[in-house]
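Good morning,

Attaching, inline, the backbone tokens for the sequence recovery test we're adding to the shared suite. The designed sequence is right after.
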């Protein structure tokens, strides 16, 4: 997962000036919470030019904040049915979101992604993470807890490298 995700993310994030990361998920549906878990880990890093929002099950409630941030890139992080090993992650384009998204949220993510892209002119994608279970209950499974930490580290690494590669503004 790591090298493929890192490469996919590096290509997608190239040239970003400001990125908004949306952590999406339901805290009482076990691994569905993985997007928020990744967001919480990234928020602790306090990276420059990066706004991290813990949207939980209502990312549509954050559209005004996203628009005001004037991002060049918006990355939604959420559990997705990738038909893969639990914890596997991949970048999913705005046009492919319906093929992978889990419908545990009120507004389809594909519609939200297109709305955000239209309103902000930002590049929008979903970083989908394969859950192990979406059963009712709190806390991630050990596989997804470990994956969330790896994924947050990959995102942090790629964003720091991209800022460094852009040089002084």
């Amino acid at each position: 997962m790591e090298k493929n995700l890192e490469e996919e993310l590096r290509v997608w994030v190239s040239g970003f000036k400001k990125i908004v990361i949306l952590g999406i998920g339901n805290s009482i549906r076990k691994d569905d919470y993985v997007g928020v878990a990744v967001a919480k880990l990234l928020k602790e890093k306090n990276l420059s030019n990066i706004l991290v929002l813990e949207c939980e099950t209502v990312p549509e409630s954050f559209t005004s904040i996203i628009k005001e941030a004037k991002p060049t890139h918006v990355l939604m992080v959420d559990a997705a049915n990738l038909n893969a090993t639990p914890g596997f992650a991949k970048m999913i384009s705005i046009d492919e979101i319906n093929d992978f998204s889990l419908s545990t949220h009120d507004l389809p993510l594909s519609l939200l992604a297109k709305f955000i892209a239209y309103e902000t002119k930002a590049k929008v994608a979903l970083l989908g993470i394969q859950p192990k279970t979406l059963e009712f209950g709190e806390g991630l499974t050990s596989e997804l807890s470990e994956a969330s930490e790896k994924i947050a580290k990959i995102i942090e690494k790629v964003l720091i490298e991209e800022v460094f590669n852009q040089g002084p503004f």
